[in-house]
Protein 1
Amino acid sequence: MINTVAIQGVIGSFHHIVSQQYFDEPVDVIECLTFDRVVDSLITRECDAAIMALENSIAGSIIPNYALIDKYALHVVGEHYLDIQHNLLALPGQNIKEIKEVYSHPMALLQCKEFFKLHPHIKLVEDKDTAEVAQRIRKHELKGIAAIASVTAAEIFELDILAKSIQTISHNETRFVIVKRSNSEVDETCINKASIKFEADHKRGSLAAILNVMSDCKLNLTKIQSLPIVETPWKYAFFVDVTFETYDDYKKAKSIISIMAHGFKVLGEYKKAKV
């Protein structure tokens, strides 16, 4: 039973929206301004689970979060895709010509880069969280300052939407994962996706051989992300997501890859979400 969930950001953030959509029952949220704080609240048992964004369809992978999940041996127990619509929010009664600065998370700024090329008078400033900026604007009645955030944040903090859906590509999705301290108790018959990590030998064809095993065992590779191994320069670990029709196919592949690869680790086995 999950009662409390840690999120990066405050109410009105996209992580908060995921907490409302993913769980069948209402959950309490612990607001955290950094992902390090999210993980800390999980491992110190302040919460039952945590929500972490892993990749965006426009901006790509959030690599530090892969490293956090791996470093603290967290387990992915589920995933959720959220349609991300960015909106320009400010105190009521202003127009876009009066906005001098926009504060937002670097990922949000990156996703809205083309919009701000049309408004070169606006200075872009990186911040920790989208909704937290909206909260700050309302709390301190900051004029001339705008946030990039959700419609939910606009409603909660009573801000005007100066421009809707300002992201560069209209279809903009982020994949979030739900992580816990221990592995899920999902029945094998319901598991059809897994996240794994391994290191390949630093020689020709070693990665290809592992990928061929996945193919031969009827696994569908949906994501591969390399991450440098800090202790060993120019060597990389691979974070891989696979989907499959039967758990037996995955189980066979897992047993073979665990022999072929170094540092093999299962990060999570769960039910894939609808995209």
Protein 2
Amino acid sequence: MNLHGIGIDVVEVERIAASLGKLGDAFLKRVFTPAERDYCMAHTDPAIHLAARFAAKEAVAKAFGTGIGKHAALTDIEVCHTASGAPEIALHGAAAAYAAEHGISRVLVSLTHTARYAAANAVAVG
């Protein structure tokens, strides 16, 4: 297994809650996939779960070494769950193409959150 890169990100939950309150569906659709939106909005406090996913997307882009943009749009990086409930990353579009070009076969991710902060670590491996 080859290590391509690692990434970490921390997000203030209030920042995500404010964006959700101000921009609503436009914010959700620009940043999150339909499955991510469904999962997060089904919780009592969606902002915590949205913030964790936002942090994961940023951490994955950092692990790629690209940041969010040409090689990885926010909706190209999706946080899913394994059958046991552990988070995992699904890549789409430009992010999937970048991963294929650079021999990245898997992105490992870990999420955590409190009432105020959400954080994620990502490791891109080939």
Protein 3
Amino acid sequence: MKESESGRAALFVETFFGESHKSFAEGWPARSRHDWELISLPGDRWKWRMRTAGLALGGRLARLSSHPEVVVVSGLVDLAHLRHFSGERGALPHLVYFHENQFSYPRPVGQALERGFAVAHLATLMAADAVAWNSVSHREAMLAGLRSFLEDLPEPVPEGVEERTRAHGSILMPGIDFDGFPAPRARPVGVPPVIVWNHRWEEDKRPSCFARLLSRIDAAGRDFRLILLGTTQQVRPKPLEEIEARFAAKILHVGTARTRGEYIEHLRRADIAVSTADQENFGYAVLESMAAGAVTLMPRRLSYPEIVPESLHGVLLYDSQRDLLARILQFLDDPRKIDELRPIVMQRAREHDWAHRVDALDAWVDEGAVVHARKG
């Protein structure tokens, strides 16, 4: 790492180098005026990252031959441990970026918040010089979960954590790399139209709702084709198996794309995209489907009203499963509506290009360093 003429020597610590975390950890430094060095761990076993990454990586920070001025870490680390075990570098300004959090992450019915993760987040908030979230809805959900957790703690309870966090907190949406995506323009609608799913096949994205939606569309007598993307865990999700069994003749592709280029090519074939999520702190998948030309329908909650322009709320945001079904049936009955909307949603998605995000993130690094200096 060398000191930049126009920025700071900065260190990025990403303990889960995969999926959206990887995109962020690569996309920001590549466009930043700061000069970055990256320390990362593979994008798996996130629970162990929360428990032990701070212990393990603290020593690596202490032994660095470079001289960072500021450290940015993702929320999947216990920052208190990291700072403690990084020696003199623990005195540097440390900023935390939360892609997600365990306080508000949906859990199965009857499953309690794992207290070890809650304590790790609490320690991170107390140890950070500044924090940032990828949406307002994410911040509010996390702080509501924090309040609930603190109310259940026996004495003594840390005081002023939420107030301090809000005072040193920012909302900073990530950017998206739209290289390789098609230019915003009209193109023919599929005959029949193509519906795409490009989310993880996990419960927080509610794939079972998507499977029921397809059954209702089919029961209404409408024809369609399917592209089924998104990652899966080791156990094959039941909703995916049900969709494959019932709609085998309609499926154009099923499975995770092998490359970014292949992923974009699949999205380019889609006319309609759907989110049925119960948890979404930003929305990479919906913005990518929009940028590729799919008219993308999302619930009117979570982060979606923040990332979709207000002028499109009435078109893209639905209020209920019945509303979602009605909107899709309208598009299938009159594909000209897709023709009209496609270039508009493609263009509006590009408002989240890295070119529109990097300056605010860079300024956050500067501000965090200034706040740290004042405290010293």
